Structure formats: structure tokens, C-alpha cells
Amino acid sequence: MHAMMAPSATLIGAIRHTVGVLSTPTRLLSSSSFSSIHTNLSGYNMFTKLPDKVKVVEVGPRDGLQNEKAIVSTTVKLGLIDRLADAGLSVVEATSFVSPKWVKQMADHEEIMRRLVRRPGVSYPVLTPNLKGYQLAVECGADEVAIFGAASESFSKKNINCSIDESIDRFQDVVDQAHKDGVAVRGYVSCVVGCPYEGATDPKVVAKVAKRLHEMGCYEVSLGDTIGVGSPGTMVRMLDAVMEEVDVNALAVHCHDTYGQGLSNILSSLQMGVSVVDSSVSGLGGCPFAYGATGNVSTEDVVYMLHGLGVETGIDLDKLVDTATFISQQLGRPTASRAAAAIMARRNVELKLAQKEQAAEEQRRAQEQKELRQEVRHNVRKVAQV
Predict the structure, then answer these.
(1) In angstroms, rounded to a whole number, what is the distance separating the alpha carbons of residues 190 and 158?
(2) Cys-Cys crosslink for 235: which of 105, 116, 265, 334, Cβ 3.0 to 4.6 Å?
(3) Active-site choice (140, 191, 255, 287)
(4) What residues contact residue 44 under an 8 Å CB cut-off, 6+ apart?
(5) CA 378 to CA 17: how far, in whole Å?
(6) What are the 10-residue block averages of pLDDT along the chain, 386 residues in total?
(7) CA-based diameter of the chain, in Å?
């Protein structure tokens, strides 16, 4: 066993400062207080292999909402997209150009793209299942599209009614046309850890599919744990296989949180060198073709974790929580994000304390005014007596 090194004076000071902030009884912790804690301890991070910056790809407006049974209005979707961009998300997946027969929630894709107010520096990719969908998307102003394959034959046939190889062959026309048009193409691979029909997925199959998508022209390949059965161990084994075929800088991870392993799987992926993470605001999502798949890992939880690790995201967590509150209220249910729920609970307590302080201050001023009026009346009586 290695001897334990004595902690440095600087580390002791940082810990004492943190404990002091956490134990302060006179106020609640603000977001800036949490940032201070993260900053003070960032120099003592045991996770030495983490990237300095992570790109978060927001999939809520598409992957998050596609499984909602009640149709969400176009205006609400556009409001969600704009709020996400305002919070600092540089990539917001806007919609999907699939047939409304298959995904009714995405039937307003043309209107979404035509009414979308684009912010500088923000990309708004859309999902395109075939050349027809691609052509329509480009006509509506799309400048980045996404295609998707699966690492499971059964899932591929259930999802898009063809084999893995057939699906990739179909997408070649989309990629070729996109390159001619100067449109960027991102690739998705579903069921990279497990399949609802076949069970565990062979990492070699995932590597093969990811390699084909990358070689055919996808600048980035997102590896999706579609039904959320992955754990850090299975994610690492899968990534080991994929990274033998595809450079890690061209990879992203897309984790669902069915078994509560989403953040753990993302952290393991970051330690493997991945620096792009897909997530969904408020933990929205699920796959309409994958029974039992719950929501994506929530963007708020991911950002809170990353900021705690000292990893830059460019995202304003408070604005992100406001956005999660907006869409949760529109859907009529609580957020699935634990970070957002905790922050909102803290805000509510702070609001009540502020209201209590304001009421006390108003009472104090009223008492002062009362005493002042009494004093004036008393002085008036004295003058009258003279």
C-alpha cells in the first residue's frame, strides 16, 4: 500500500473555505457560491484525463419530444429551441424530417425550420431518414443533418424496416448529396450497449457501424445507449472497440438514464477521451421504437457535473434551469432533472426568505412611521399648550 501524502496548505485552505461556505447559516448557497466551490477544488481533481471543454449537443426538441403522446405546439417548440440557444447551447437539434405517419410529433418540421430564429454561432441540425427528407430539410434552410444506423439487426428492422447494411447503403445518397451542397452530416448509432430485442450488443458490431458512418462522410458519430442499459464497464468496453476504428475526436456519446447510469457512463466516456455529449433538457425523451427506454440524461445534470469537474461548457446553468422549468410546465409534469429540481427548490426557499425579509422590513418601516406620527402629534400638543 502506498503511503498517504500529507495534504498541502493550499489544499487545506481550499477545503476549509468550502466547509465554511457550506456551513454558513445566514444565507443559502447561490449559483455563484457553487461555482466558487468548484473553482477552489478544481486544482485537486482526481479525474486527470478529462477534456478541458465539452461540447453539449442538445437533443430535447427532437429526441426529447418525439415520444410525447400529446402534440406540443410549434410555438412551444420554437420557444424551447430559442431558450436553449440563449442558455449557451451551441448545438440544438431542432426537428426530424420523418414521415408524420411514423412520428406525428414531428409533423411540423417544415414550419419549425421556416420560423426558426437563428442565433449566431448556434447550429440547428435535423434528422433526415432518407434523400427525400434531406431535400425537404435543405429547402427549409437546414445546413446540418443527421442520419442514423443501429448496431442491432432486429432494432434496425423494427425502426426503419431494413438491415444494418441496407440502412447505411440508403444513407450514402444522403451523404453524397449533402457534401455536394456543403451540408454537414452527423451520424447516430443506436443500441451500442444493448438492444430491446437481442440483449447485449457486440462492441465489434458497434465499431463496424461507426466506422462505416465515419468513412462515408459523417464528421461525428454519436454512440447511443438507446435503452439505457449501459454501465461504466460496458461503455468502456464498447468505446475500446470503437476507438480502434474511429478517432475519439470524431465520437460523441448519447446516454439514456433508464437504470440511473447516465452520468456515470458519460464520466467514463470523458475519461476515455470523448469530448462531445448528447443530452436532453429536463431529461425528456425515450425512443418510440424501443420498449422501456426512458428519457435521455438531462442536460442540467450533465452541465452541473461538468462544471463541478472544472470542465468548460459555455452554458449558463441558471438559464438552462429556467428553460427546463418552461418545458416542464408546458408538458404539465415535474422535471426529470435532479439538478434542476434541487436548484428550483433552493430558489423557492430563497424567494420565501426574501418575502419574509421584505415583510419584516415593511413592518419595521410602518412602525417607524407610526412612532413618527405619534411624536409629531405630541409636539403639536406641546406647542398648543404653550
Answers:
(1) 12
(2) 265
(3) 287
(4) 11, 14
(5) 54
(6) 39 37 39 49 63 97 92 98 98 96 93 97 96 96 96 87 89 96 97 94 97 97 95 98 98 95 97 97 76 79 97 98 97 94 88 80 82 79 74
(7) 108
- List CB contacts of 89: < 8 A, sequence separation 6 or more: 56, 58, 122, 299, 315, 320
**Residue 161: predicted pLDDT:** 82
Q: Give the Cα-Cα-Cα angle 85, 74, 158 (nearest 5 degrees).
A: 95
Cell numbers placing 228: 439505457
287 has catalytic annotation: yes
Cα torsion 211, 242, 49, 314: sign = positive
Report the DSSP pairing between strands 126-127 and 95-96: parallel
Distance CA 277, CA 294 (A): 18
Go through 25-49 and write b for each residue having 16 or more CB atoms within 10 A of its CB, e for each that does not: eeeeeeeeebeebbebbeeeeeeee
Across the strands, what pairs with 55?
Answer: 276
DSSP codes of every residue in 259-272: TS-HHHHHHHHHHT
The 3-class secondary structure across 67-96, one letter per residue, is CCCCCCCHHHHHHHHHHHHHCCCCEECCEE
Q: In this structure, are residues 296 and 271 in contact, taking their beta carbons and an 8 Å threshold?
A: no
- 330-334 CB contacts, 8 Å cutoff, 24+ apart: 330/72, 330/76, 330/80, 331/68, 331/70, 331/72, 331/284
DSSP, collapsed to helix, strand or coil, labels residue 233 as: helix
Specify the pLDDT at position 89: 98
Residue 140: per-residue pLDDT: 97
The amino acid present at 102, given as its one-letter code, is W
Give the residue carrying C-alpha cell 434551469: 321
Residue found by looking up cell 408538458 in the block = 331
